[in-house]
Specification:
This protein is an alpha+beta fold and about 350 residues long. The protein has helices at about 5-10, 15-30, 35-40, 50-60, 75-85, 95-105, 110-125, 180-195, 200-210, 220-235, 245-250, 255-270, 275-280, 330-355; strands spanning about 65, 75, 130-135, 140-150, 155-160, 165-170, 240-245, 290, 305-310, 320-325. Strands 7-3-10-9-8 form a five-stranded antiparallel sheet, with helices on both faces. Strands 4-5-6 form a three-stranded antiparallel sheet, covered by helices on one side.
C-alpha cells in the first residue's frame, strides 16, 4: 500500500469529497479551486469556513497547495497521484474519439511507419497534447551479420534478416582492429545468430563471449560488443520515435518559465536523452501507466505528465508503445481510455499483418 493510498483510506467522507472536487475542478479549468466554489457543489450543505478548514488539513497532509496568494487550492504531485490511483473514474472511449482513431488505422496503407505517423498526429489532435509513438523493433530471425571497415576509426555493421530486411549502421570500432579480427567477429556472431532475433542474440552474447574468450581474439570480442551496441544505444531497439503535437504544449504554456520547461522537454526528446529509460516503462507490465511530473526522470524538469501504454504482437510480446504528454492537469479520465484503445488497435493491426 502506497503512502497516498494509506492517506486516502484514512480520510473521512467530507475530506475525500473536498479533495476530489478540488482536483476535478483544477483538471477542468487549470485554476485554483476556492471554498466558495465548493459550497455550491458539495453533496452536503456546509459553510465556506468548514471547507477552508478541510482544505487546510489536506494541505498539511501534502495533498493540496496554495499557489501565490490565492485563497484557492490546487493538487500537489502527490495529490494528483493519489487521485489517479484511488479516485479517478475511467470510462469507455467516447464514440467520436473511437471513430477518429478507427479511421486513422483503417486505411490500406502498407507502410507501417506511415500508419504510426498518422496515429501520432491523430492522438495529439484528439488530446491537445503531444504524442509519442515508439515504432516496433525488427524481430525477424537474423540470417547474416557482416562488419565492413570504412576508414580508420569508422566501420559498418550490416544485419541481414531472414525476411529480407537489411539494416546498416556506422560506428567506431575498437582501435588497432585487424581484418582478421573483423572476420573472426563476424564468424563468431553468425555461428550464434542462426534462427535468433536480434534481441535474443543480444541477451546471450555477453555470456558467450565470457565463456569462449579463449576462442575469440580480444579485439574481435570488443568489435562484437561495440557493433551490437549500435542497435542497443542508438535507438536500435525501436526503429523510430515519433513525436507529434509540440505546438499544442507550447500554446498551453502561458508563463515564460513554463515555456522554457516545455522547450527543454522537447530538446531532450529530439536528442533522445534518457529515451532508453523511457522505453523500459512500457515493458514493466500490460495496460496504461501514468507518470506525473518527477516520477519519470525524462519529464521531471518540464512539469508534465505522461500517459503510456505498450502494444503487443500476436505472440503477446511488447514491441512498442504509445503515449500522450501534457501538463499535469491532463484530462486523465478521457485520455487514459484513448491511449489504451489506440494501443490495442495498433497491436491488433500489427498482429493481423504478421499473419498475412
Amino acid at each position: 500500500m502506497t503512502e497516498g493510498s494509506k492517506i486516502l483510506a484514512e480520510l473521512n467522507d467530507r475530506s475525500r469529497e473536498v479533495f476530489r472536487r478540488v482536483v476535478e475542478g483544477y483538471l477542468s479549468s487549470g485554476d485554483p479551486v476556492g471554498s466558495r466554489t465548493l459550497t455550491r457543489t458539495m453533496s452536503e450543505k456546509v459553510s465556506a469556513a468548514t471547507i477552508r478548514n478541510v482544505m487546510q488539513d489536506l494541505e498539511y497532509l501534502g495533498l493540496l497547495d496554495s499557489p501565490h496568494v490565492s485563497a484557492g487550492r490546487v493538487p500537489t504531485q502527490m495529490g494528483l497521484r493519489m487521485f489517479v490511483d484511488g479516485l479517478l473514474e475511467v470510462g469507455a472511449v467516447d464514440q467520436d474519439d473511437r471513430e477518429k482513431i478507427d479511421r486513422t488505422l483503417g486505411s490500406n496503407e502498407t507502410d507501417m511507419g506511415a500508419v504510426l505517423d498518422r496515429v501520432g498526429s491523430a492522438l495529439s489532435g484528439l488530446t491537445q497534447g503531444a504524442s509519442l509513438v515508439l515504432t516496433p523493433k525488427h524481430e525477424a530471425p537474423i540470417r547474416h551479420i557482416e562488419f565492413v571497415s570504412l576508414a580508420p576509426g569508422r566501420a559498418l555493421v550490416v544485419l541481414v534478416f531472414g525476411d529480407g530486411h537489411v539494416e546498416n549502421r556506422v560506428f567506431t570500432p575498437p582501435p588497432g582492429l585487424t581484418p582478421s579480427a573483423m572476420r573472426e567477429a563476424a564468424n563468431f556472431l553468425n555461428a550464434l545468430a542462426e534462427g535468433r532475433t536480434l534481441s535474443e542474440l543480444r541477451s546471450s552474447i555477453g555470456k558467450e563471449i565470457a565463456a569462449r574468450r579463449r576462442e575469440i581474439d580480444a579485439l574481435a570480442g570488443e568489435l562484437v560488443e561495440s557493433g551490437l551496441a549500435v542497435w542497443e544505444d542508438e535507438g536500435g531497439r525501436y526503429e523510430r520515435l515519433i513525436v507529434r503535437g509540440r505546438a499544442n504544449l507550447l500554446e498551453s504554456a502561458a508563463e515564460a518559465e513554463e515555456l522554457d520547461r516545455i522547450r527543454n522537454l522537447f530538446d531532450d526528446l529530439e536528442r533522445k536523452r534518457d529515451i532508453a529509460e523511457f522505453l523500459e516503462l512500457a515493458e514493466e507490465g500490460e495496460g496504461v501507466r501514468i507518470f506525473i511530473g518527477s516520477e519519470n526522470k525524462l519529464f521531471s524538469l518540464s512539469g508534465s505528465s505522461l500517459v503510456v501504454s505498450p502494444y503487443m504482437n500476436a505472440d503477446r510480446k511488447i514491441i512498442g508503445a504509445i503515449g500522450v504528454i501534457g501538463p499535469t492537469r491532463l484530462n486523465y479520465g478521457r485520455i487514459v481510455p484513448i491511449v489504451d484503445y489506440t494501443a490495442q488497435l495498433v497491436g491488433k493491426l500489427i498482429s493481423d499483418r504478421g499473419k498475412g
